[in-house]
Amino acid sequence: MAAPELDSLRLLVLVGELGSIGQAAAVLGTTQPSASKRLSTLERRLGLVLTDRTRRGSALTLDGHVIVGWARRVLDGLGGLLDGAEVLRTRHEAALRAGASMTLAEHLVPRWIGELNRTNPGLRLGLEVTNSDRVAGLAREGGIDLGFVESSRAPAGLASRKVAVDHLVVVVSGTHPWARRSRPLTPAELASTPLVVRERGSGTRETVDTVLRRAGVGPVKPLLELGSASAVRNAVVAGAGPAVISALDVAGRELVPVAVEGVDFGRVLRAVWPEGRRLTGPAAELLALAVRNRQLDPCPTS
C-alpha cells in the first residue's frame, strides 16, 4: 500500500473539523472539485470509505474518525520533527531547553511559559513535546534542562518536584451502553473491556495499568493504541470504544464520564531534572512558577 500524501491527510482532518469539503478546500487554498478528487484518491489508496457526503455537507464515517486520529498523530509528528529541527538549529542560542508530556504541554506548561516570558523579555526557549518516558530520558541525557512528566513516582536518576495533580476519567460516546449505566463499573469490568489507549511510555497508560494492577485485575486490554490524546478522544467520540483520559480533556467535548467503584485514577504531575544538578536561571524560575501555580489537592508534596 502506498503511503497517503500529507496534504490529503490535512484535508481529511479539516473535513472532520468543518463538516464541509468546500470549507476545508478553502482553508487549504484549493478548489472543491480538486479536494473531492483528493479525498476519493485517499479512500481508494486505503481501501476505506472515510466520508459520508450529503447536500448538507460531509461527515466522517467511523473508519474516517479513526483514520483522522492516526492522521493527527502523523501531522503532529511532522510538526514535532520541524519544531525539533528548529530547536536543534537554535540550541546554542537557547537560554532554556524544556520538555513536557502531552497533557502538560496542552493544558499547563503554556501558561507557565507565558508568565516566564513576561518577566524575561527576549528569552529563547526550546520546548520538546513527547510522552513522559521520552521526557525523562531527555532529562537524563542532558537534552533538556527541565522536564514535566506524568508519573506516580520520581523517575530513576532524576530529581523531581510535584507541580500539579491530575485525575483520569473513564469516558464513552453518548451512544455507548455505559453512557446510560446507573451504577459504577467494577475494576474487573473495566479491565476485561478492550479500551482505546495511549502508547506504552505515556503517563496516562502507566497510570491506568498501575491502578488496575493494584486492584488485582490489570493491566489494560488495548482495543486501539494511539499516540496522542486527541486521537484517543476522536476514536471515543466516533464510537470505537471506551477510554481513560485526563479530566482536563473532558470538558466541552462529546464524551460521557463513567464512574468506577473503589479505584482512584489520580496522578502526580512532576517537574524533573538531572539528579545532583542545582537548577539556576530561567529553569529555576520556570519551576518556581509551576509550583506556585499548581492545583491545590490533598496529596502530599514529593
UniProtKB/TrEMBL annotation:
Pfam families cross-referenced by the UniProt entry: HTH_1, LysR_substrate
Record-level Gene Ontology MF annotations: DNA-binding transcription factor activity; transcription cis-regulatory region binding
Signal peptide (UniProt feature, chain positions): none
Keyword Transmembrane: no
Family annotation (InterPro entries): LysR_HTH_N, LysR_subst-bd, WH-like_DNA-bd_sf, WH_DNA-bd_sf
Domain (HTH lysR-type) ranges: 4-61
Keywords: DNA-binding, Transcription, Transcription regulation
PROSITE patterns referenced in this protein's UniProt entry, alphabetically: HTH_LYSR
PANTHER family membership: HTH-TYPE TRANSCRIPTIONAL REGULATOR (PTHR30126), HTH-TYPE TRANSCRIPTIONAL REGULATOR CYSL (PTHR30126:SF39)
Family: Belongs to the LysR transcriptional regulatory family.
Name under which the protein is recorded: LysR family transcriptional regulator
Lineage of source species: Bacteria, Bacillati, Actinomycetota, Actinomycetes, Pseudonocardiales
